[in-house]
Structures are given as C-alpha cells and as structure tokens.
UniProtKB/TrEMBL annotation, chain B:
Gene3D superfamilies noted in UniProt: P-loop containing nucleotide triphosphate hydrolases (3.40.50.300)
Signal peptide: none
Natural source organism: Rhodopila globiformis
UniProt-listed PANTHER family: RAS-RELATED PROTEIN RAB
Keywords: GTP-binding, Nucleotide-binding
Stored Pfam families: Ras (PF00071)
Entry protein name: GTP-binding protein
MF terms in GO: GTP binding; GTPase activity
Lyase recorded as keyword: no
Listed InterPro entries: P-loop_NTPase (IPR027417), Rab (IPR050227), Small_GTP-bd (IPR005225), Small_GTPase (IPR001806)
Domain of life of the native organism: Bacteria
Length: 755, 167
C-alpha cells in the first residue's frame, strides 16, 4: 500500500509516541469506508487514497472469512471453462433426468443433436453405423428378408409340391391344422442342422469362439477360421472391390456355409441340409446381440479370447438350430375307419369291374350280331340296368336270343325289338332257297361270287322247280346257276355220251375206244397219272360203275397243262415263282434263288421233244435283284486296321455304320426272298510277326468288327467270323502300302435257298 | 471352447526361398498346398509355449512372388507380426525380403518380425557375405540362419517372434 503524502489520513496512520494499543490502520480504513459510503465520489476526489484498503479486506476476513473462500472458488469455477464444464457435467445427467417431464427439453436439444449427428456422419459414417448396427440390421432383415425370401421360397415350394401326391397330403395337413400351405411345405422340406458356428474377428481373421454340434466332424477351427477369412479377402480383392462385402454363402454338396458379417466380428455357420431363409435372421440377431453386449471386449480383442468366453453360450444356441423330418404321429390315424374304407373300395371296384365286363360282353354280342347275315342292328344302348337293341332280322337269320347264351348275358336283361325283313345277301338267299327248294342230297348249293351255284345231279322235276324259283328271285338278289346240275331223268346213253365227251376234253386223257354194248359201257385209252380220275367223273355223271368197263394205259402227256402240273410237282417252285401256260409254252415268272433256277433249267432241258418249251427267262435270280446288289455292296466293303491293332483304325466309324445299315437291310430282305443269308467276316493281318500271332490278331479283328456291328443292331446270328492271318493277302508285294491294305476285315455274303 | 491366445503371423519372402517347406515340416497343417496357387494364401498353425501358456501362431503363408507388387498385402491386415524368409544361397532374395519389409512397414507401420536366412544346410553355397550379416545386425534385424531340412533355428525363430507379439 502506498503511504506517500499528502495523504489526508496520514495523520491517523502515523503512530503516536505512546502506543495506545489501537490499530490505527484499521480504524483509518473504517473511517474511509464510512466516508465512501456517505459520498461515493469521495474516493476519486481523494487522490492518493488506496483503491483497496487492506484493512477492509481484513475486516471482511474477520466478518465473512469462510464465505469469501467459497465465493472465490465458485467464481473460479465459473470463470474457468474447463472447471465449469466439469462441474456442469457432473450434474447434467441428473438435470436431464429431472427435466424429462418437461417437453421443452426435447425441443431445445433436438437441433443440437441433429447437428451433432450430421457432423458425426460427415466425419466418419462408420461410427454411427456401428452404433446403430445392432438396431438397424435386425429391423432391415425382418422387413426385407421376411417378405422377399419367404415369398420366393414358399412360392417355389408351393409350385414344386402343389401337384404331387405328397403335395396333396400336405394340403390336407394345412387344411386340418389351419396353417398356411407354404408353412407346411417349409416344415417338411427344409431339413437342416447347424453343425458349426464360428465367431471370427474380422480384422485379424482370428477365431473368437467356435461351437460344433455333437456329431459334427471338424478340422482345427482356428485354421478354418483364418482360411475362411483368407478366402473372403481373396474374393473381395479379386471380384468385388466394395468394402465390407464378401462371400455370404458357400455351398459344398450338402453343406452350406453362411457368413453373417458384423462390424467387428463375423458369424460363420456351417449348415448341413437346406436352411430356410429366416435362419439368416436368427443368426444375424445372435450376432447383433453379441455386438451389443460385448462391444468393448470385441474391440479390444487381440487374440486372447479369455474375456469373450461367454459368447459361447450364444453360439451354442445357434448350433442347436435344426429342423428334423417330422416323426410320424403314433396316434391320430383313423385305424377303425380303415376296414370300412377298404370294404367300400373293394365293393366299388368289384361293381366297376363287373359292369365293365358286362359292357365288354354286350359289345362283343352286338359285334357278333352285326356280322350275321340277315341281321341289321339299328340302335343299341343301356337303360335302367337293361341292354336295349333294335333292328331288322330276316326270319331265316340266327336267333339273336341264342347268341346271348354264348356271351353269358342273361336274356332277361335284354330288351330286343326286331322287325322282319327279307335279306338279299347271298347267305340269306341261299338259306331261303334251301328252305323253299329242299334240294335232293345229290345237289349241293354253294355261293360263288355273287351267284348261288348248284352242283350235282337232280331229277328233272326238281330242276324245273329250281329254275322257276331262280326266275322269281327279287332284283338285287344273287342269281341261281343251275347249269352244272345234270338231269338224272335224261336217258342213260345220253349221260354216257356226255361223260365220254367230258373225258375227251380233259388234258392228259386220250380216249381210244368208247362203246355201248348190251347195256354195258366200254371205254379204253391212255391216261396221264396227273390227269382227271375217270372213276370220279363217272360218279359225278350218275352212271353206275358196275355197268362200265374201263381200260386206261398210263402215258406221259405232253399237253402244256399236264407238263405244267408235272413241273410243279417235281420242282416245287418257291412262292415267288408263278407258272402259266402261254400258247404252247410254259412260262415261269418271278424271282428265285440261283440254286432252284439251276434245277429248273436242268428240268427244262430234259423235257422230251414235242413237249412245250419251259421258259425260265422271266425268272430273276434273287442275287440279281435288290438282295444281289446288297451282296455286292457288302462284299466290296473292307475295314482297315493299324499295325498290331485289333480295333479298326480311327475314322472307320462311318464305314461301319454304313455296313451295319446294309447288313440290316439284308436281314429284312432275306426272308422276303425266301433265302437264308450268312455273312462271313474274315480278318486279315499283314505279314509282320509270327504266323500264329497274325492268325489270332486277324481273328480278333473279325471279332471286333462283329462286336461293333452287333452294337449297331445287326443280328449276330447273321455273322460268322474267321481269321485268315497273313495267308490271304490282297496284295502280296510286301511294300508298306501292301501291308496296310492287307490289314483288314473282308466280307463274304452267302445266300441259300430256304429249306 | 477353452480360452486361447492366438496371433496372426504372415510368412513373407521371395519365390522358392523355403517358406512352405518351413511351414510344412514344423507346423500343423490341414490345408492342401494348392491353396497357395489358387487363393494365394494357406493357413497353418504353430503352437509355442510361452511361460506355461500356449500361444497359437496362425501362420498365413503367402504365395511367394518375385514381383513384390503382385503380393496381396491385404492379407497382412490384422497381423501381429511376420516372418521374412530369404534364401541364404541367393542374395537377391534378401533384397526382396528387405523391400517386402519396407512395403509392410509403409502400409501397416512397424510390426514385430523375424528374418530367416533359410537353407543353412547348404553351407557350401552360402552366398551372404559376413559383412552383410553384420550390417543387418547393426540395423537391429537379427537375422537367423535356419534350415527347413534339419530344423535348425526354426523353433527358436517362432519362439522369438511369439515373445515379441505377446509383449
């Protein structure tokens, strides 16, 4: 403090000679203060007066020492921002807690919070992402995953199963239990088990925790964990480039590896079977919980998982996830209903079978009726358990009722209505003629084309009646031909003349003598054994053989008809050959095996002079036709081989294909032409090597070609094989080209007449 | 699962210096070597005992590349240390190892590592001059001569690295 003069209070401060014990300084200050209180401007007026007076301080200290210290500390706190912040910080939580009821707090804070969030996002979006991750991810998963994946999955499964038997059973189950069909399908089809769960530290790839199902085989999980990370890195580096994206699904046979990435750790699940899509959500939620609860421990992870031992419990829950094929329920199946159902089923099917059989029998019956002459079925059907049939029936046609017995239909079940009519078909007309004419036993009526022909012999009266009946047949009906009926009432000599005339007209019979003497008939001549039997003709002429004496000398007729018969008997031509008489020649036509042709030519040459010429020029040899061309084609084929190789050389496939086609054509053609075809496959080798070796090699080549042909559908019975070794060379010169040509399989076709 | 201590360690070095041989003979291995050529990395494990506690060194054996720019350095992310391998009979591989170290340092900062000069069994062909070895030592690199064939120096090298990563 300054004590420089002139100080108005100096006097006061100056100590008197004798100490009176008064603190003058304090007293002076007191006065001064009192003066200041009275006149505040005094202080300025009193130049030199100390701005602060220590005494006042002392007085203050005396009066309010503690409060001053408190105030000083408080003002210190208020003035120092750091201290103030610390102080406010201490009470802020409880202040907020108390202010929660006040709506203004939220309004006041909102702008600042918004600004702070914006800044945070601008600086590093990951921070906020990490904070929100446990909240957002499950929510997003729920909304997107559930809607899209489940929809797709259930759609797929629904489509897949909706039309199968199992699908129908599941529809029934859905209807019975009131669950949606898609859910039933999922329950039955998605059989899976989570076998391993790895929690992997993303940054280092180190394993934080691993849990395996009881029965799951495993490699060292620490190594698997790092390898998974390495593969993720590899894929990310190689294909994607996008941060935080990697493989989320790997599939290996029955195993699916799902990777659920989190901000610090990745959850990898190894699942056997078909996991449902919502398993992603379950795993994702587990990962989010781990992140939320153990965030700090995860961030601090440096390879030591001692602090994170408790996440194992969370993983164990994931490993417990599975969906097993539902067990068949032991109760609930309506066993009692089973016999009833079976009985009903049997009854229904028995009735069905019986009805089907009845219908079949009825159809058979109607078909039989339709085939009958004199019956016309106009309509048929079934009404009130009875069969109905209506139509027209000739009275001479069969009785439709009788036909019912043959098809085992009860006549009582049939309502038939037949209108009578006169049928004009030959059979009905024949029946009518037979009924009305009543022909004698010597007359036979038969149908020949559109005529009804009578054969034999009959009395003149019957013949007359028959002619009259023939004339009155309605138009459209067949005619009655009576020309072949001999009149029994004609005189015996006239019948004899007719008989002799008939014999004279016969080829191979030469009548030299025919006489009538004393009521007896004499006849003599030559007869070729192949000609008509005169004795039989006698019976047909109604001449008593007892009145006839006949002498026939055998001879060889040269009549073309007889020669033809003889050639036919001796040569037995194949059905493909026809003989015919053309003037004085016998002409053979068609095609025949060469062997038969040779025989025929021999027979033609040895015919006696005067005999007709046997002309074989129109007969083709079988080998000349299609089959001959086939034979030539096949025989021209050759399959080449490389040295010492029993299999055809490369590039021969097309050739063998073509050959197989020709052989199959031969197979089909041979029976048509009445020949038996055989094809010999001969294997050949070149001359290099020993004889026995070449023999077996050549046989092996033939066998190989046969096997290849058989594989192409050629009947192996058609094919025979032999090995010729090097003994039948096509080119014996011994050059390389010759040796190559000799390594082959050749084909020989034999065609023989069918026995 | 019991508590374990794991450290990610990368094996780096030029082509055919014997990294894979070191790994194959002295560590646990379950994956085929073909991963090296396909994915470019193969994971193996070396367990060392550190004062009674087992430390699992998860070894990322990276495909050897003479062209170091082709090496996938992203595989080093999160590594606690690395093993640099060079071939004692080929001085050029030591240069590769040194430049690899430089690249790792540039990308990931200083990390503990050991430098192995492999093929020590081929003493007759040893081609690294003693002067160079001394030079490396003065840089604090402490190169170790190892042999994948005899196993010489291998255990000690991994132990050394384990100690430094855990510290």
């Amino acid at each position: 403090m300054s004590t420089s003069s002139p100080d108005p209070l100096d006097w006061l401060l100056r100590a008197p000679p004798g100490d009176d014990g008064i603190d003058r300084k304090a007293l002076a200050g007191l006065f001064l203060d009192i003066a200041r209180s009275v006149r505040p401007d005094l202080a300025t007026g009193l130049a030199g007066a100390p701005a602060t007076d220590i005494r006042l301080e002392q007085l203050r200290t005396l009066l309010m020492g503690h409060e001053i210290a408190v105030l000083a500390r408080l003002s210190g706190i208020l003035e120092d921002p750091e201290q103030l912040a610390a102080a406010v910080g201490r009470i802020l939580p409880s202040a907020f807690a108390r202010a929660q009821g006040d709506a203004r707090l939220g309004q006041v804070l909102a702008p600042s919070l918004e600004k702070a969030t914006q800044t945070s996002v601008r600086n590093d979006p990951h921070t906020l992402l990490n904070i929100l991750y446990p909240l957002i991810v499950p929510a997003i998963r729920k909304s997107i995953g559930e809607t899209i994946d489940k929809t797709f999955q259930s759609l797929n499964e629904s489509l897949k199963y909706s039309l199968t038997l199992r699908g129908l059973a599941w529809r029934w189950e859905a209807w019975r239990t009131g669950v949606s069909f898609a859910e039933v399908v999922l329950r039955h089809t998605l059989v899976y088990q989570v076998e391993h769960v790895f929690l992997i530290h993303r940054h280092t790839g180190l394993l934080i925790s691993h849990v395996a199902a009881e029965n799951a085989a495993t490699q060292d999980p620490q190594l698997v964990s790092s390898m998974l990370t390495a593969i993720q890195d590899f894929v990310r580096d190689s294909f994607s480039g996008a941060e935080n994206q990697g493989v989320d699904t790997m599939r290996l046979g029955e195993l699916t590896v799902w990777s659920e990435p989190g901000p610090i750790a990745t959850l990898v699940a190894v699942i056997r079977g078909k996991p449902p899509e919502d398993l992603h959500e379950t795993l994702g939620n587990a990962l989010a919980r781990i992140h939320a609860e153990r965030h700090q421990a995860l961030e601090d992870f440096d390879g030591d998982n001692a602090d994170l031992a408790d996440v194992e419990a969370e993983l164990t829950e994931c490993v417990a996830l599975r969906q097993q094929r539902p067990q068949r329920q032991p109760f609930g199946f309506p066993w009692l209903a089973l016999p009833i159902a079976v009985a009903v089923l049997l009854a229904v099917s028995a009735w069905g079978v019986r009805r089907w059989q009845e219908d079949r029998r009825w159809d058979d019956y109607i078909a039989q009726l339709r085939a009958q002459p004199g019956i016309v079925v106009t309509s048929t059907g079934r009404r009130d358990g009875k069969f109905m049939v209506t139509g027209l029936r000739d009275p001479l046609a069969i009785d439709p009722r009788q036909a019912l017995g043959a098809v085992e239909i009860n006549p009582a079940d049939v309502v038939a209505s037949w209108a009578p009519y006169q049928a004009l078909d030959p059979v009905s007309v024949l029946r009518r003629l037979q009924a009305s004419l009543d022909p004698p036993s010597s007359v036979a009526l038969s149908i020949e084309g559109d005529r009804i022909k009578a054969d034999g012999s009959a009395p003149a009266a019957w013949l007359e009646r028959a002619r009259a009946a023939g004339r009155v047949l309605p138009t459209g009906a067949p005619t009655l031909d009576l020309t072949a009926v001999r009149n029994l009432d004609a005189p015996a000599d006239r019948r004899w003349d007719e008989y002799v005339a008939r014999l004279r007209a016969q080829p191979g019979i030469v009548v030299t003598e025919a006489e009538q003497r004393d009521g007896k008939f004499l006849i003599a001549g030559l007869r070729d054994p192949l000609a008509l039997d005169p004795q039989q003709a006698l019976t047909e002429a109604a001449i008593d053989p007892a009145h006839v004496s006949a002498h026939w000398a055998p001879y060889q007729a040269l009549d073309p008809q007889i020669v033809l018969r003889r050639l036919q008997a001796t040569l037995t031509p194949p059905p493909s050959v026809r003989f015919a008489v053309a003037g004085d020649r016998i002409v053979a036509q068609g095609s025949a095996p060469s062997l038969w042709l040779e025989r025929a030519h021999l027979a033609a040459r040895s015919l006696p002079s005067g005999a007709p010429v046997f002309d074989l020029s129109a007969v083709r040899t079988l080998s000349d036709g299609a089959i001959g061309r086939l034979r030539d084609q096949i025989q021209a084929r050759t399959i080449r081989f490389n040295h010492n190789d029993p299999l055809p050389a490369p590039g021969q496939g097309a050739l063998i294909d073509a050959l197989a086609g020709e052989l199959k054509a031969l197979e089909t053609l041979a029976p048509i032409q009445h020949v038996v075809a055989r094809v010999m496959l001969t294997g050949h080798s070149d001359s290099v090597g020993s004889g026995t070796f070449n023999l077996s090699l050549s046989l092996a080549r033939a066998e190989a070609v046969r096997a290849l042909l058989r594989k192409r559908g050629v009947d192996p019975d058609l094919l025979a094989v032999r090995g010729a070794g090097n003994l039948e060379p096509v080119d014996p010169t011994g050059t390389e080209a010759a040796r190559a040509a000799n390594r082959h399989v050749s084909f020989t076709v034999g065609l023989e007449e069918r026995p | 699962m019991t508590a374990t201590l794991q450290k990610k360690i990368c094996m780096l070095g030029a082509f055919s210096v014997g990294k894979t041989s070191l790994v194959r003979r002295y560590v646990e291995s379950v994956f085929s070597d073909t991963y090296l050529t396909t994915v470019g990395v193969k994971i193996d494990k070396k367990t060392v005992d550190l004062a009674g506690r087992a430390v699992n060194l998860i070894l990322w054996d990276l495909a050897g590349e003479d062209d170091i720019s082709a090496l996938r350095l992203s595989y080093l992310r999160g590594a606690a240390g690395y093993v640099l391998v060079a071939d004692g009979t080929r001085p050029a591989t030591l240069d590769v190892a040194m430049s690899l170290r430089g690249r790792v340092e540039a990308d990931y900062g200083p990390l503990p590592f050991v430098l192995l000069l492999n093929k020590n069994d081929l003493a007759g062909q040893w081609a690294i001059p003693d002067g160079d070895m001394d030079g490396l030592r003065t840089n604090g690199w402490w190169p170790r001569a190892t042999s994948a064939r005899t196993g010489e120096g291998v255990e000690e090298a991994f132990m050394d690295l384990a100690v430094r990563t855990v510290r």
